[in-house]
Amino acid sequence: MPGDVVTQRVLFMRHPETVSNTQHFFSGRLDVPLTPHGKQQRERAVDALVAFEPERIFTSPLSRARDMAEMAAERLGVPCTPLEDLIEIDFGPLEGMDVSRAMNEGLGFPWPVDSDGVSHPPEGAESFEHMRERCRHLLETLRPLTGRTACVTHGGYLRMLLATVYDIPFTRFWDQHVLNVSSHYFTCDGRTFALGGFNLTPEEVIAHASAPSEYDTRDIWGTGRRELS
C-alpha cells in the first residue's frame, strides 16, 4: 500500500500572489512581481518550507518562485537548484494579454483538444504534450532520490503534474483549484508517487510536518522520524 515503504517525501508548492493573478493577465514565462499580499504570503510559505525540512529544494527559475525557494534554502542551509522543468507553461502570443481580451480574440485557454486527445495551442505556445513531458522528466529526476525534497513552481505546472501522475486527460487536467502558496504532498517508494495532501495551506504543511497525527497510522509525513519499511 502507498505509504508502507517511503524512500522520499516530496512537497510541491505554488508561488505567492502576483500582479498577474490580481490583474488577470497571462504571465506564464513573464517575470512578474508579487503583490503586497503576495509578499506576506511568501513569509508564511517560507516558514512552511523550513518546517518541512527538505534536504534539497528545486525551483522554477522565475523570481516569483525562486526568491521564496532561496529564502527557505538559506535558512535551512540546503542547496537550491533552479530547474527548467519546473517553469510555468509558455502561453506564447497570450503572454501579457488580458484574459478577457484573449477570449474575445478567440485565443482562449485551455488549448483546444481534438477527438484523439491532442492539444492545439496557438503558434509559439507550449503544447500540453510538451508540458507533460517536462513533468515526466522531473518525476524521473526525483524518483531515485531519498529523504525530503521541496519543489517551488506554478499553478499550471501543478495541474499538469497531478495529471501526469494519475493519467488525467488534457480535457480535464485544468479542472483543479490550486491556490497561491498551496502545496501538493507526495510520498515515493522509489517507483510510485502517492498523493498524501492536496491544496495544503502553509499552516497545514507546518502542522503535518511538525506533529504526529492520530489519523496518519503509517506516519506518511514522517513526523516520528521512523523508517516505515
From TrEMBL:
Record-linked InterPro entries: His_Pase_superF_clade-1 (IPR013078), His_PPase_superfam (IPR029033), PGM_Phosphatase (IPR050275)
Transmembrane segments: none
CDD domains attached to this UniProt entry: HP_PGM_like (cd07067)
Name the UniProt record assigns to this protein: Histidine phosphatase family protein
Species per Swiss-Prot/TrEMBL record: Olsenella profusa
